[in-house]
Amino acid sequence: MRLELKELNYKYPGSVGDVFRQLNCQVTEPGFHALFGPSGVGKTTLAKVIAGDIRGFGGEINLQRIHQILYTYNLERIPGWYCIREHLESITPESNRQRLQDLVDSFGLQPCLNSRFSQLSLGQQNRTNLARYLLQDFDLLIMDESLANVDEITKEKIILKIKALFPQRCFLYISHNVVEVSKFCKQILVLRSHHKAPQAVSLQGQDFNGQRVLKEKDLEQSMLEIVNAS
Amino acid sequence: MLHRRVYQFLIIYFTGLAALMLMKYSLHLSDYTIPGVTEIWTTCRRYFALYLMAVLNTLCVAILGHLLSICMATIVGIIGRLTIWIGSFIRVAAYNIQAYPIVAVAPIIFILLGDGLSSRLLIAAMICYFPLLLSFIGILSEPVKEIEHFFESTRRMNWGLQVKIRAFENIHKLITVIVGSATLAMVGTIVAEFIAANAGIGYSIRIALYQSDLAKILVALFLIGICTSIYLVFLEWLGWFIKKRFGTI
Amino acid sequence: MQRKLLQKIGLLGITMILILALAGCARDDEKSMEEVNYRLKWLFNISVVGDLYAHDSGLFAKNGLKVTVKPGGPEKDAIKELELGHAQFGVASADQVIRAVSKGAPIVVIAQLFQINPLHWIYRPDKTPLKTPQDLKGKTIGITHGGNDETIMRALLAKYDIRESEVKLFSVRYDYTPFYQGKVDLWPLYRNAQAPIIGAKLQKAGERFALMDPSKLGIRFVANSVVTTRKMLEERPETVKKFTRALLQGWQEVLKPANEQKAIDTVLKYNKETPEEIVRQQLPATRILMMPTPDFEFGKIDSAAWRQTEEIMLAQKLIPVPVFVEKLLKPVGEK
């Protein structure tokens, strides 16, 4: 499984400056990876380019054994006429039915099932949205701030669950939180402003999966590398 | 809700009537120019049943015309939301055609269709159609990205679902424009009857105008106001019911 | 150089003073004229040629009046305008006058324009032969519900003992399609204004037409008459006299065959939609209805016809009680 971006160039329509200039990066294995960078550097734009929502860019995107890419972001909503249970049941393919209850339990969605989306808290909404994407068939899931407004304990639980349930899938997790990307991610793509070269730097994360002890020193080291690279 | 609307109408109506009486007695005008209260009351007693039937006739045509225009606006709005050439053609055509005054087109419709139900229905539908259409096109053309994104990404999106999402997300606007256009439907039907029909309260008003009988016109206006208010109340209740049923309130 | 400039300025100044003085004189002349508004019954067409001629030929001005002649229409009521003070003179039909007076409107009639009511019914004699009024039985007759043609037709049917169930009354509108299509046998129109137009269309289609005149069948229903308020007559009798004199003179002159072209030009000046050849046909038709004989005294009020009009309205309960119409008739211009 491989995702490779080669000499990527992109400019917003009608704007003067580039967003990406000669951007090169790659993800070479399945796992929980991160896309990190300061606000406004183009993380969401890059995610949309990878997902195919944005076209008209220069350069190449090479995919190996990645056929279905999904992109989700934290402002998504489900249609108002559904309650959560109805919607999740309607969008879950037959092959993933068994996973549905597992995810509901892991994500703490049981109390929400009979509610409508607008009746949920922001955290519950984000979790519901993420759960429905995880119930789809995909090779690469890009999660853009998908766990914003979720408390730290639940967030850890969710990320660990994702890693346990989908070891052979690829995730690209967009976050501003340097601690969580350092702790949970295998590879961290640090995206920088277009006038810096290289524009993307790849770093190693701690890839914590709950089954080993995480050394604080290693975590700090990863965080420092990320901050320096930004 | 019912009481509020009806009370509002009654206040407006009787305020207007009081203003007329004030003008009558301050300028010493005869009953021919502004009828007195007694004459209005006598006329009301004599013509109430007849005019009530006429107003109900008009209201039925107005409601049918309103429903017809909602259906037409929905169909055209669904087609008009397309980004291909037919969609933009329909949008441009809708904006341009609405500039034609219906009172100029109405006589032509009556010549072609006669003065039966079909012509009154068509005119009523056309008068309230364009505001509905412009709103519907606007609503159905505007993507609701936060909801549609999932279905598009997972290839579940179809035109029916897209329309449903956009309509549901804008249900408040839709209900507002439908309630607002109900008055237009009633006005349109009355105008159509006034111009060229031989039934309905508009026709009765035309006869009263030929006879310069303002008392009859005031009675007709009273009944039109009451019936229209009740229809609006019903539509507002229906809108509230729909919003409550789908959890938007 | 300076002197020449001063001379020019002086000349300009004198010119301006002269212009202002003349304008002031004109305004003074106008100020001495009484301003009155005259609301007609309908739009500018052949039926108001005399009103327009009296204005254009300066007859009103010669009598010291500055008259604004205003067109009527379906939404305008001259009697209401008189009561509200928006007009000082108006044109109304007899049924309008009688209805208004029955409701207390202080109106008087100072002249009668049409001696024969122009409201006739057009029909095809080949398809609908009408030798006697009884031939109306079984026919589809167009009427305007609420209009005076309905009143006239009902009076006609009553006079000849024809029950309403023996005819079919068809509600008419502004378009003549049902008549052209043959769905309606008799269609109401104004003999002087519309008959030439409709008749031309029928002739073009190879069809003969004829006109049924209710007055020839004994129904005399007075049409357009000149009205003013009782107060105007009492407080400004000289103004009323001057107005009526100028108006009747205008009508008398414009209806003379010798002044045919002037009449046509007057109508065409205010009504550009009607072709000249039609106006040329409308004029003699109008003349006959207003001046049945060449030496007829224009504007004469026919009291008998007014009484019959009132009787018809009483019989059809269009007025609750008699108004004693003779009390309203105040012929000012009659000799």
Give your account of this protein's structure.
Chain A has 230 residues and is α/β, with parallel strands linked by helices. Chain A has seven helices and nine strands, in the order βββαββαααβαβαββα. Chain A starts with a strand and ends with a helix. With 249 residues, chain B is mainly α. Chain B has a single domain, classed as MetI-like (MetI-like fold, Orthogonal Bundle), CATH 1.10.3720. Helix content of chain B is 84%, strand content 0%. Chain B is built from ten helices and no strands. Chain C folds into two domains: 34-116 and 222-328, D-Maltodextrin-Binding Protein, domain 2; 119-217, Periplasmic binding protein-like II (D-Maltodextrin-Binding Protein, domain 2, 3-Layer(aba) Sandwich). In chain C, 44% of the residues lie in helices and 14% in strands. The model of chain C has no long low-confidence stretch (mean pLDDT 91). Chains in contact: A-B, B-C. The B-C interface holds B 27, 29-33, 35, 39, 107, 110-111, 115, 195-196, 198, 203, 206-212 and C 74-75, 77, 79-80, 83-84, 96, 99-101, 103-106, 144-147, 171, 173-175, 177, 318.
Keywords:
heterotrimer, B: 249 residues, mainly alpha, MetI-like fold, 84% helix, C: 335 residues, alpha/beta, D-Maltodextrin-Binding Protein, domain 2, 2 domains, five-stranded mixed beta sheet, 13 helices, 44% helix
CATH class assignment of the largest domain in chain C: Alpha Beta
Structural class based on helices, strands and sheet pairing of chain C: alpha/beta
Unreliable spans of chain C are: none
* Major sheet of chain C: 5 strands, mixed
Q: What is the arithmetic mean of pLDDT of chain A?
A: 90
Rg from Cα of chain C: 24 Å
Total domain modules of chain A: 1
